[in-house]
């Protein structure tokens, strides 16, 4: 027996892949051997931190009772800023489940409901954040998140870095001076992040412990609120939303011949109509409905495709869509590889069946 | 109704030439849609971009000379110089273009004046009993009604209808320099820390949204079953309302 350590070439190779293993790691210096460090097998544990050295807060809007992509990216950014010593507290505007938040990288979770009055927001958020004395507070640069962040910054006097496009522990970079320059500065106390700028957390799940918000302290500094009364939100009628903004698009391709049912179904679903290029070329749908590289790039949450093959030029229009649903007779169509739910069936049969189901419910 | 539109005097991001930001043009549109007098107000010296903004419908722009930082200068001007004839409404754009571009100024001003602020305003309605009804533009074409107590600050939605550019107005617009006590105005946020360098476009994360690999596949299912699965899936995604049935016009 020699004392030589046996090599495991397979393990070595897998360590040269990014986590998840879809592609090799980028090794700029070409030193792949240096990366071959022995790694303990990953145990499915939850990482806890009892008394972190400091806190980083992420204020996240809950979408349908969970975190969406943007929300996970915010928590991921907070986790990155917290490093190993810090803790991440997620302030959920709406209900956020603890385990989902933990997987996204949060150590503590606090939820607030009823933030109807934008004037009251800074007071509520600062009361919640007060006990944590967070080093950074992260918001989404969305309509609501950006508004809340600026209100909090204006009230507290904390420096703010809005619309940060690149973020690491040392610095944040944001465009300024008309977008012709970018400012590189240390990460400010309040930061807002646009979508898809920071990767979500991919490490070991964190605890995500749900905390109870303490009773609101009667702060003497609280200004009288009530200068704003918000009314109900009116969702735009499907026909009136431009295709590029529509949240839900139903689209027809070459596989659709029964356009009457298609239009009726789109109306019953409350969805905006789209189409592939071939259908628009044939004059079966207006040009404005074309989805894809030479048509409209969607910002929808859900895309329902009937009889669309999923050509690359078409899929380019779906870059931002989170959920694709496909109905196609061909199991090997490219769209099926992109879809979260695929139904391999004739569109002319599925459309009326779904329409009947919706009408039945309405009756 | 007397409204004042805050103008930052900006540049065009592409050419670098003076041009007012879209949001401020939208703010002028909102001010004009209310009716009554509308004037521009700028903390800083007269600049060509102000004249171009005025071409969208302002007869006069007051440029504040002095007053400390921009928020202080504006607040002092609104409180003191307009004390006898105060505005009911102050409108601003979402973000300046050419300076700090943080969109903080209206918020700081609202905080300083103690006025209510509402952002994302896409249309204004009528005023009654000291309250103004407005329409807020939300993403994906949704709208929200709101009422706000006057006087207030409204931040215009970039997509609020913009009034046309009229060259003659640009020529006639009066840029009035108003001396205000204090040093020359500086950016609202004070001396910014950090280094400026030419902008470098950074790609967004790729594949952040696209799922890899196919999801659930139903191969030649029973049609009725497929329809049920489809409906339940859409409902779970939250794009289909909960069993509200067909929409009224179906
Ligand atoms: C420069 C350039 C730009 C382009 N830009 C665009 C663009 O912006 N947008 C765009 O869409 N295209 C674009 N195209 C065209 C694109 O390459 C494809 O030709 C087009 O998207 C195909 O449309 P389709 O999927 O509807 O048709 P097809 O490729 O004919 O696919 C029809 C699909 O329907 C299925 N099917 C057939 N019968 C049924 C049935 N009864 N029930 C259910 N499914 C059925 C078939 O299995 C097939 O998968 C572009 C092409 C070029 C060269
Ligand atoms: N110097 C200024 N004078 C008057 N209004 C300003 C000035 N700077 C910014 N504003 C207003 O505040 C908005 C947001 O600007 P900013 O906070 O600089 O991004 C702008 O769209 C203007 O309406």
Automatic annotation (TrEMBL), chain A:
UniProt GO molecular function: electron transfer activity; flavin adenine dinucleotide binding
Concerning InterPro entries, the annotation shows: DHS-like_NAD/FAD-binding_dom, ETF_a/b_N, ETF_a/FixB, ETF_asu_C, Rossmann-like_a/b/a_fold
Q: Where is this region: Disordered?
A: 1-23
Q: For bias kind Basic and acidic residues, which ranges apply?
A: 1-15
UniProt GO BP: fatty acid beta-oxidation using acyl-CoA dehydrogenase
Q: Which residues form the Electron transfer flavoprotein alpha/beta-subunit N-terminal domain?
A: 56-229
Q: What UniProt keywords are attached to this protein's entry?
A: Electron transport, Transport
User: What family does this chain come from, according to its entry?
Assistant: Belongs to the ETF alpha-subunit/FixB family.
Q: Which PANTHER family match?
A: ELECTRON TRANSFER FLAVOPROTEIN ALPHA, ELECTRON TRANSFER FLAVOPROTEIN SUBUNIT ALPHA, MITOCHONDRIAL
**Record-given protein name:** Electron transfer flavoprotein subunit alpha/FixB family protein
Organism, scientific name = Gluconacetobacter dulcium
UniProtKB/TrEMBL annotation, chain B:
Q: Name one Pfam family in it.
A: ETF
User: What InterPro entries does its record include?
Assistant: ETF_a/b_N, Rossmann-like_a/b/a_fold
**Where does the Electron transfer flavoprotein alpha/beta-subunit N-terminal domain lie?**
27-181
| Keyword Transport in record | yes
What transmembrane ranges does the database entry give?
Answer: none
Keywords assigned by UniProt? Answer: Electron transport, Transport
- Name of the protein: Electron transfer flavoprotein subunit beta
Per the UniProt record, the source organism is Gluconacetobacter dulcium
């Amino acid at each position: 027996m020699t004392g030589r350590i046996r090599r495991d070439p397979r393990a070595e190779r897998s360590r040269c892949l990014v986590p998840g293993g879809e592609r090799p790691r980028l090794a700029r210096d070409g030193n792949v051997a240096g990366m071959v460090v022995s790694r303990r097998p990953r145990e499915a544990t939850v990482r806890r931190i009892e008394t972190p050295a400091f806190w980083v807060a992420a204020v996240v809007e809950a979408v349908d009772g969970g975190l969406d992509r943007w929300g996970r990216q915010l928590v991921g950014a907070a986790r990155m800023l917290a490093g190993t010593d810090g803790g991440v507290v997620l302030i959920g505007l709406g209900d956020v489940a603890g385990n989902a938040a933990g997987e996204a990288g949060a150590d503590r979770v606090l939820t607030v409901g009823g933030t109807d009055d934008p004037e009251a927001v800074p007071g509520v958020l600062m009361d919640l954040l007060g006990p944590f004395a967070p080093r950074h507070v992260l918001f989404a640069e969305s309509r609501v998140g950006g508004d809340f962040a600026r209100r909090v910054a204006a009230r507290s006097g904390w420096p703010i870095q809005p619309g940060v496009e690149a973020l690491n522990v040392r610095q944040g970079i944001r465009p300024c001076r008309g977008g012709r320059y970018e400012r590189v500065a240390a990460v400010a106390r309040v930061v807002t992040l646009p979508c898809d700028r920071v990767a979500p957390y991919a490490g070991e799940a964190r605890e995500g412990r749900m905390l109870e918000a303490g009773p609101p302290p009667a702060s003497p500094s609280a200004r009288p609120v009530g200068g704003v009364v918000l009314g109900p939100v009116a969702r735009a009628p499907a026909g009136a939303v431009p295709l590029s903004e529509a949240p839900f698009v139903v689209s027809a391709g070459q596989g659709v011949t029964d356009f009457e049912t298609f239009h009726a179904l789109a109306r019953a679903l409350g969805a905006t109509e789209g189409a592939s290029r071939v259908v628009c070329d044939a004059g079966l749908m207006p040009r404005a409905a074309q989805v894809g590289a030479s048509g409209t790039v969607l910002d929808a949450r859900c895309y329902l495709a009937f009889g669309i093959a999923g050509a690359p030029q078409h899929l380019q229009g779906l870059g931002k869509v989170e959920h694709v649903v496909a109905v196609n007779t061909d199991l090997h169509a490219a769209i099926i590889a992109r879809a979260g739910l695929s139904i391999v069936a004739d569109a002319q049969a599925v459309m009326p069946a779904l329409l009947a189901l919706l009408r039945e419910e309405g009756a | 109704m007397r409204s004042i539109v805050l103008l930052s005097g900006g540049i065009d991001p592409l050419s670098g030439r003076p041009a007012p930001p879209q949001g401020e043009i939208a703010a002028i549109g909102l001010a004009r849609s209310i009716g009554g007098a509308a004037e521009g107000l700028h903390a800083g010296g007269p600049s060509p971009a102000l004249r171009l903004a005025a071409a969208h419908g302002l007869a006069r722009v007051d440029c504040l000379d002095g007053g400390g930082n921009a928020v202080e200068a504006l607040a002092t001007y609104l409180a003191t110089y307009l004390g006898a004839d105060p505005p009911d409404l102050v409108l601003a754009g979402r973000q300046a273009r050419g300076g700090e571009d943080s969109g903080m100024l209206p918020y700081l001003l609202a905080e300083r004046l103690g006025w209510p602020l509402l952002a994302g305003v896409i249309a204004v309605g009528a005023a009654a009993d000291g309250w103004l009804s407005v329409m807020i533009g939300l993403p994906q074409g949704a709208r929200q009604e709101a009422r706000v107590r006057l006087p207030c600050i409204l931040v215009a939605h970039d997509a609020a209808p913009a009034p046309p550019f009229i060259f003659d107005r640009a020529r006639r617009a009066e840029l009035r320099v108003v001396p205000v006590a204090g040093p020359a105005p500086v950016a609202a946020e004070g001396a910014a820390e950090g280094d400026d360098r030419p902008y470098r476009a950074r790609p967004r994360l790729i594949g952040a949204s696209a799922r890899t690999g196919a999801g659930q596949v139903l191969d030649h299912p029973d049609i009725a079953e497929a329809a049920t699965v489809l409906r339940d899936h859409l409902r779970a995604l939250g794009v289909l309302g909960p069993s509200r049935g067909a929409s009224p016009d179906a």
